[in-house]
Every structure is written in structure tokens, then in C-alpha cells.
Amino acid sequence: xxxxxxxxxxxxxxxxxxxxxxxxxxxxxxxxxxxxxxxxxxxxxxxxxxxxxxxxxxxxxxxxxxxxxxxxxxxxxxxxxxxxxxxxxxxxxxxxxxxxxxxxxxxxxxxxxxxxxxxxxxxxxxxxxxxxxxxxxxxxxxxxxxxxxxxxxxxxxxxxxxxxxxxxxxxxxxxxxxxxxxxxxxxxxxxxxxxxxxxxxxxxxxxxxxxxxxxxxxxxxxxxxxxxxxxxxxxxxxxxxxxxxxxxxxxxxxxxxxxxxxxxxxxxxxxxxxxxxxxxxxxxxxxxxxxxxxxxxxxxxxxxxxxxxxxxxxxxxxxxxxxxxxxxxxxxxxxxxxxxxxxxxxxxxxxxxxxxxxxxxxxxxxxxxxxxxxxxxxxxxxxxxxxxxxxxxxxxxxxxxxx
Length: 403
What we know:
Elements: H1 9-26, E1 36-40, E2 44-47, E3 50-54, H2 67-80, H3 88-91, H4 95-107, E4 112-116, H5 119-130, E5 136-140, H6 145-154, E6 157-161, H7 166-174, E7 182-187, H8 199-208, E8 212-216, H9 231-234, E9 243-247, E10 257-261, H10 263-272, H11 274-277, H12 284-299, H13 302-320, E11 332-338, H14 340-352, E12 355-356, E13 359-360, E14 370-375, H15 382-398
Parallel strand pairs: 3-12, 5-6, 5-7, 7-8, 8-9
Antiparallel strand pairs: 1-2, 2-3, 4-10, 9-10, 11-14, 13-14
């Protein structure tokens, strides 16, 4: 590798990562960025000519490839083409963009909604637009990186509270001067652990201390609640979150992010958030696909029932075998391995038996809590889940992760 300066910090960081990747590849322990050549029915994929059970998917309701969604996307291309004329503020909004935002607002029981080009960009821009110098942002310690980055970018005073610890959250709120603006932020379902934020208590504390509340529903939309509307429905609450953020790339099989809330908030974001003003509009096919997906969630509630049954089967089976799955209650199931090395070796054994699972290692999680971050979907057949669990269990026994 030829660098202008072989001793500077940037070069050293690049070399360290390149060397780590090379070492993993040499030992058949590198399984990231694999080429998937075909999506198959039943929660399966075609990888390097092999049919594998997909247990790393965010498509929780199995909506990828749904004929209604595919048709909506194709019709949008026929009507509008493959792209847009630029940013919506200057080049105009397509009718499909407005329809999507109306659908989201209705789905989330809010007055209005606005969409962005990605979930990451949504959190980054919305937090840094609403909060600034002199304000306070209070974030759960295990929140997604996009929330953390949005907090840092805002310039506000950044405080963290212990994961899902409401006593610690209250201590943090008590430390902030009463006359300062403050916002509490949390994932609804935590992306690495699968547990659910204590929304009723968070709402209570935000009202007590006059704090705004923003919840990231990336992993709860279509997953929590009887009709899949998310964490408020799950707890039997309605419209208690000020900033309802979500993605269009997980349960919703498209791309993008959104915020739903009061009309005044959405108007402000349309005219002040950089990710909206300076990013091109969602491609028509993706907007139409997302719009149709929200409707299907309501039209096909049996998918949520199937997801819940599959999740219970997967969690109970792995816990029963002796695995530590933390406090998960959802389709995200952390299979704790311990060291990074064990997580890589567990992945190798599982992938060699045609089960597509991936390791999550430090620094994304603590070094002693490296894991397989396994997921199930409504598309999986219970018999296939049993096969996958058997593979994971045998791998865990072979490596001494479980007895």
C-alpha cells in the first residue's frame, strides 16, 4: 500500500483495519459484505451458489418481494421514471412522496410526517436541527450510532443514562437547569440486544421535567403492537411521543427514514433540517414501495402473529439450550459468545452449515459480550427455525460456549 506519509495517524488507522480484515480472511473468519445473488421464499437467500437460511435480516414481516409492493414500485417507475429532479424544496415533490407521508402520519396517529433519504440521515439531521448550543440531549447508553452522532453534531450538552435505567434517567434530568431545553432520546427496540425501552416511565419523567421525547422506531414499526403500529400501541398509549422517528428499510422493504409528529414540528423540519433541504428526494419506486408496505401491515395482521410465534420459538429454544440471550423480547436475538474470536468461530461453523448469521464484535459491543446477532422473520418456517437452532447449538457446544 502506497501512502504519502507512512507514519501519520490516518495511515495507521487504515493499515490497522486492512490488516485485521486480511487476517480474518486468511483464517476463513470473514463473513461481512457477502454477495447475495437471489432472495428466496421462506426466509432463504442464495449466497455463492448455496441456499442459506437468512438469520440476519431486518425484513421482520417478510415483506421483501411481496407482489403488491413490487407492483407499486414498477408502476411508479412507469409513471415517474427511476429518479427525481432533485431536492423537493426546489425541484418539487411528486404525488407519491406526499401520499407516503400522509400514510405514515395516519399509521402513526400524528398530524403530519416528513421523509428523508436514510434512517441515519434522519437522526443526524433531526436531532441537530431541533437541539443546539445551550440545550441538553439525554441518550440511552445503548442507542444507535446515528442518535449518538446526531447528539454530538447538535452542539448540545450530551448526557447518557444507563441502559433502560429509569432512576439514572431521572438523575440526569434533575441535573439540568429547569430553564434549559432538553430532549430525551431512546431506541424503542435496541438493535443489538432486542429489548424494549420502558416507554411509560420515560413519558412520565419527560412530563415531570418538561423534556421533549424522541423515540427511534427502526426496529419496532411493524413489530410491536397488535396491528404493528409500534411501541405506543404495544404499551396501550396514544400520541405520547413528540418526535416519532422510523426507517423505511427494515420491516418496510424500501429505503429512507421518517419523522411523524405535530404539524408545526414537521413544517419546521421541512424548512430547517439539512438532510431534507440538501438531499435529493426518495426515488419514486422506493416511495411507492414504502407506501404500499404500510398498508399491507394493516391488511395482513397474521404476519405479526407469525413473527411473534417465530420469535418465541427462537428465543426459548436457544435459552433452553443454555445460551445467554440477554433481555430480548423481540425478533432480535443476541446469542452471546463471549470473546470476538468465539463469535467469529461460531459464525464460521454456522455458515458452513448454510445458516446465514453474522458476528457483532467490539467496539460495537463490549469485548466480553461479542455475539451472533440473529434475527427471525415472519417468512421463516418453524421447521427451518428448528434446523437453524440445532446448528447454532451444536456450534456452541463444539466451542464450549454452552455445555
